[in-house]
Amino acid sequence: MRTVLIIDDQGGVRDALSLLLSLHEIRPLAATSPEEGMALLERERVDVVIADMNFSADTTSGEEGVALFHAIRARHPDLPVILLTGWSHLETAVQLVKAGAADYMSKPWDDAKLLATVENLLELSENARVAATTRVTRRRRREELERSHDLRGIVFASDEMLRVLELACRVARAEVPVLVTGPNGAGKERIAEIVHANSAVRGKPLLTVNCGALPAELIEAELFGAEAGAFTGAMRAREGRFEAADGGTLFLDEIGNLPPAGQMKLLRVLETGEFERLGSTRTRKVKVRVISATNADLSVMIREGRFREDLFYRLNTIEIPLPPLTERPDDILPLAEHFLDDDAVLSDEARDAMLAYAWPGNVRELKNTIDRAKLLCGRDEITTEHLGLPAAAPAASRSLDDPPREAVEDALKRAGGVISRAARTLGLSRQALYRRMQRYGIPTDG
User: Which of 183, 368, 370, 385 gives 339 a disulfide partner, CB atoms 3.0 to 4.6 angstroms apart?
Assistant: First the structure.
């Protein structure tokens, strides 16, 4: 349960605050002295502290409150502290806020303002606790993944990419076809490399064919080989990629570009391991792990008659969906740093611009942007001008349906400053409302 510790030597203050908090489903704890308060903090889980500035009779300097605040900070650095202050030591309270106190309230306090501040700090405290737990869990999962699998040096920081890599490593040992889906430039080939590197045939060849980079009449010859004279220009016999990859893995990129005849032959290879070279009647047999990738919607292509449904189900035994870069923003800056030279740095403004940009070209566009910026900046700091990002391509998270500033302010006013209530009114999550408040310059400290 949400818990607030009240540290005050006046029984009336403790009782009034305890009643106010209890009426709003907040569990109050009360202590009469700094020593008792610190002891309670060691025994109980506390989310917010409300502390007086003076505890001894005839003392008005606020020194006891200063000492208590620093003691709490030393033992519980992330615990929010609200100071209760009189006019005589208001300046001291302001200095403590600058030092990290969450807020201060003058006696007598305003119940509505105090409650709104406590509610917002409780939300922030819960968010911080969840975020910390998430970070620890993510770090452990990543460490375990890196310890037990070959990730081929891939750079990532997001939960989304961690889930993709966990799936890729999990299916790597299964001898079934894998389909990697996602937009151009997102890194589908890197996922194929990781699947192969952790498979039972990792010591065998991994060959790649980009089905979108070859004319339709040459794709079959590239995949299955051709005898001399099989087509114009075929001066000698050549083996195809299936033969070359025998015992290993074949990565077929842009599989949606495979023509109908090639689709039929590919289906047969997946079902039987058998095929013939172009211009040959001799049946050859291979054992090849096929990983395919596409940025197309194959289900639409099936409905339009451009892709075989039976081939789709053969290729799609396991699907690994790779999200676009804009849906995994935690990866943007680590990737940018990876693409930088050791002597180049990104300005804070450049970092903000990169996080705000939608990256329609994904990781490939990010790399090209950094490469261009390095050429333009020389050995100087990389700025937004060096990046040259189009202003007309905002991040997908910035919706045209965002509530205007006036609507946010009105919702906060009607909710008494309580973030969660205002967020529900606006149809937003608390985190989404915090982001919009920061964007509009609306104070978030209650």
Answer: 370
Maximum alpha-carbon separation in the chain: 107
Asked whether the bond before 108 is cis by omega within 30 degrees of 0, the reply is yes
What is the pTM for the complete model shown?
0.65
The pLDDT tens digits of the residues spanning 298-329 come to 999 999 999 999 999 999 999 999 999 999 99
CA-to-CA distance for 288 and 313, rounded, in angstroms? Answer: 17
Query: When comparing pLDDT for 85 and 162, which is higher?
Result: 162
Residues 6+ apart with CB under 8 A from 422: 408, 411, 412, 414, 415, 433
- Arithmetic mean of pLDDT, 175-201: 95
CATH architecture of 155-323: 3-Layer(aba) Sandwich (3.40)
Task: Quote the CATH superfamily of domain 3-128.
Answer: Response regulator (3.40.50.2300)
Residue 286: strand, helix, or coil: coil
How confident is the prediction for the chain on average, in pLDDT? Answer: 88
What DSSP letter does each residue of 410-439 carry, written as one string?
HHHHHTTT-HHHHHHHHT--HHHHHHHHHH
Check residue 42 and report its DSSP letter. Answer: H
d(CA 428, CA 407): 12
Q: Give 62-115 pLDDT, tens digit per residue.
A: 889 899 999 999 999 889 999 988 765 677 878 888 888 888 888 889 899 999
> Cα separation of 363 and 336, whole Å?
9
The CATH T-level fold of domain 326-387 is Helicase, Ruva Protein; domain 3 (1.10.8)
Orientation of helix 111-148 relative to helix 159-172, angle to 10°: 30
| Res 396 pLDDT > 70 | no
Mode of pairing for the β-strands spanning 178-181 and 289-294: parallel
Tell me what pLDDT residue 394 has. 45
CA angle centred on 8, ends 99 and 102, rounded to 5°: 25
Question: Rounded distance, CA 282 to CA 125, Å?
Answer: 71
DSSP type of residue 331: G
CB 211 within 8 A of CB 255: yes
First to last CA, the chain: 21
* Residue with the larger pLDDT of the pair 445 and 161: 161
Residue 162 has pLDDT above 70, yes or no: yes
Per CATH, 3-128 and 155-323 having the same topology is answered yes
Supply 384's token pair: 């937004």
Q: How many CB atoms lie within 10 A of CB 12?
A: 8
